[in-house]
Amino acid sequence: MCGIVGYLGKQKAVPILLTSLQRESYRGYDSAGLVVFESGQTVCLKAVGKLEKLEHKINGHQRLTGGLGLGHVRWATHGGVSEANAHPHTDCRENIWLVHNGIIENYAELKEILKKEGHIFRSETDTEVLSHLIEKFFQGNLEEAVRKALRLVRGAYALAIVSREDPDKIVLARLSSPLLIGISDRGEYLVASDANALIPHAKKVVNMDDNEIAVLTRHDLLVLKEKQPENLELEAEDAQKKGYPHFMLKEIMEQSDTVENAIRGRLLVNHGAAQLGGLESVKEKLREIEMINIVACGTAFHAGMVGEYMLEEYAGIPTNVDLASEFRYRKPILDGKAAILAISQSGETADTLAALKEAKRKGALSLGIVNVVGSSLSRETAAGVYNRAGAEIGVASTKAFTSQLTILALLTLYLGRQRDLSVVMGQRVTKELKLLPDLVKRVLTLDSQIKKLVEKYKDYDDFLYIGRKYNYPIALEGALKLKEISYVHAEGYGAGEMKHGTLALIDENFPTMVIAPTDSVYEKTVSNIEEIKARKGPIIAIATEGNEAIKNLVQDVIYVPKTLEMLTPVLSVIPLQLFAYHMGVVRGCDVDKPRNLAKSVTVE
Ligand code: AGP
Hints:
By secondary structure, the chain is α/β, with parallel strands linked by helices. The chain has 18 helices and 26 strands.
């Protein structure tokens, strides 16, 4: 939720910290701050609002030349949005300074104890408790004090800590929130919550694991548990907008390539099968599993819902899909014959990680579909498939979603061909998958048409999204996109469920987006269109090219190419992404950094 960064090296820390914070600004953007060592003294600057506010303050400050510093972008959890609550936080003697991503669950009781011992608090945050707790144990050696303090702490944290009295050192600690150390080829150290923030300076990366403490000094990196640096597989331009006004639009427009990336080298067209290198190690176990339980959050959850239909219809495997935040507190009946499939773009979503650990505890085989290489979830699962969608910077998940759907289709092929899926049906699916990148390219050409459509619908304050079977989850996803990008109220619903209540909402002021490709349930969806039409509700339909009849039933139609029913969600969701994007732009919203949200939700 928040983003933390750090730098220890010979260069000026401030410009490097700011570049990294810019790269992490989608993780939190209600306030920001940094602390740098300047000839033995510490200079701390904080500002409420976007990062530009802090940059403005820094430009107004005398030149900061120190080569050691920490930075932070905040997404408030404890304490309102204010300069006092912005990070870094310090102790009574302004010796210990730290930045934190996570939540300290027992901060209130620790604060009471520390107050009784005379500590003075300057903020309402949970984080500040840590700087005073470390102060309590500090006797000249920072990592020693950190180790003792953390023994009393419950919660989640990625921490970077410095001390005026034990200078030239950054101490790091991690428990469930992501924390990476970047190493440049000049022996400098960078610290970040996200690999994007390490480029272009770092060439090597160390992913910290839970319960690890690391000590960075000018000459050494010590992780208090053995670690091997890996190559940093990221291109700088991934984090660029490439001429688009927003990352969201850039990422929507990349989907033909990202769907191509998802299938490249993974289709065995002649065998009507898929080859997924990341599953080879559990190939035989996968043959034995009798059920799959998918867990995920938000957009990834909607992808899981589509996966449920695919796996049951084409692979014949009983499949459940659960919100990870519910699954982790439910009493799921799982055993060694079950597989848990966790889907996550960031690979750091706390609820999904916890649900996965819960299922592993019950003996389920752990699988993952993840976009961020080296993320916690990719290391927590026995096997999995990477999306290869590249960095997704826009808070609204778009290219990762269509990539997740494509990977779920590949997984369905892989497991189906281990079971009763015929080579002929398998070949049909592989052929359609091969055509998908070009079909996506065709849908992306609808951008200007959809932009015009938004002009027509921009003043409505409520929308209903409906769909059936494979496109019921797409109705949920379309509604989520409109809500999170344009703050317009929208409800996603199963079309067949409307007459059981929601139909009461419909009148001429309540437009409905109907996802109605020509599929096995098309006729049923048409009857739902008739129900809305009878109540004078305006209707926009996502329909299959060649379906002229639907024009007589609805106000506006967006046509998408024909494909296999199980793949229609990949095409039908893109116009909904563009609709939400243009609605957000026309309503003046910050589409890349929607209010109150953050890219990866690393706390419960
Ligand atoms: C989607 O646009 C949102 N950003 C959010 O719902 C997201 O899908 C959810 O937080 C899950 O994130 P993950 O895929 O990184 O686990």
